Amino acid sequence: MTYYFLGIGGIGMSAIARFFNKGGHVVCGYDRTESPLTRKLQEEGIFVHYDDNPDKIPSNVDMVIYTPAVPQETKVFQAVKEKGLPIMKRSQMLGELTRGKKCIAVAGSHGKTTTSAMIAYLLSKSPMGCSAFLGGIAKNFDSNLLVNNESEYIVVEADEYDRSFLQLHPLYSVITATDPDHLDIYGTHENLVEAFQQYANQTRPEGALILKEGLMAHHHGHDHDDGDDDDKLLLHVGEEIRCYSYSARSIEPDYYAINVRNYNGNVFFDLRTPEKVLYDIELQNSCLYNVENAVAAAAVALQCGLDEYQLRFGLKSFAGIRRRFDVRVKTKDVVYIDDYAHHPKEIAATIESVRYLYPDKRVVGIFQPHLYSRTRDLADDFAEVLGRLDEIILMPIYPAREKPIPGVSSGMILRKINTMNKYLSTPEQIPDLVEALCPDVVLTMGAGDIDRLVPVLESRLSES
Fold this sequence. Notes:
Layout (H helix, E strand, L loop, with lengths): L1 E5 L4 H12 L3 E5 L5 H8 L3 E3 L13 E4 L8 H9 L3 E3 H9 L3 E6 L4 H13 L6 E8 L4 E4 L6 E5 L14 E4 L7 H4 L2 H12 L7 E5 L5 E2 L2 E2 L19 E5 L7 E9 L2 E7 L4 E7 L5 H16 L3 H10 L8 E5 L4 E5 L4 H14 L5 E6 L3 H15 L4 E4 L15 H7 L5 E3 L5 H7 L4 E6 L7 H10 L1
Parallel strand pairs: 1-2, 1-4, 2-3, 4-5, 6-9, 6-10, 7-9, 10-11, 11-14, 14-15, 19-23, 20-21, 20-23, 21-22
Antiparallel strand pairs: 7-8, 12-13, 15-16, 16-17, 18-19
Helix pairs in contact: 5-8, 10-11, 11-12
């Protein structure tokens, strides 16, 4: 089979491309810009072209896989449609690949990449094993793909964008958060939560649904009260589905973390399960918000049958995800952390972790807003959380799939930040500006091409 990918450089797309390439198929694709990920795909023998030229589409394509991130007016997209080639959305293909498997799917407006990678790593270190399609490069695998043809388990990141996750019918489902996002697709927060509810109810009855505490309305006759009379933003789950709650901030759920502490940059906690307490679980070079992800991953792993030793070893040796609280430089003078945070809740969690691990240090944050629509919808929230930094540098908006919206720019956030220590900068100016600010901790955040700045800052800060 010959597969052609429209938007092959996307993190979810590249995992599927790698899967077919490993399976001995011919794989090629188009992406708008070259990136470290597309270069890696090329090294693996996948042909990638960056010019929007239909002549580059092979003549013998059997299946086209596309992502909604590629505009339909792109010439290669138009050519594919004119030729009448079989075409499938990425989410549909992921649904096909999980069919007949014991699928573990992790959904949520944040936390899903780390949680799914933790689950995949825990299972991969046990006799059960698993395959996995991840939304980030897991450092333990140095990839976003794990293939184990002997295992029945397949771990996937369930993306809520464009209702993609509704293609999945998991054995075990996780929902980490249902905060407002992708309102360009959903219109309202209520519509987004409705989609999460539909996803939750697609969990197979012989499996289980693992939910962050406070997301569900009630289950099996137990009223859940989160202090909000508005039931519209809570999930209503069918009686036939087993549900478990988890948290790192409360002692009410089925699985929770207590006695969380920081020792020399490593985080320790005690894990309470419905059966017992597991003391002194360790996460190395990690952050505060990963405790909650670890509790969710542990709940799934224990449901799958892992024992305490396998769980302890797996969580301690989990190396994290590239661009998820990724410590790039750690010297006596400066710490540099890179993070994918692009939603106000994620940014708040990242800043909270930095303050927890490095109290009394001066933190300089660099943020690249992602999408015009998200900037417009959440400008006040972005301004509030970014104002918690000692110095904030904003880059121009990364448009991704969107056309500019009149009046919407990074300046919209900048004007709302209630501090004088704020700057608007091009990527080229940032290394000199950061150096001039003499930071103790540098933090880059965003989901766009800010990752291209990372090696430059890493090199500059390592020398200082």
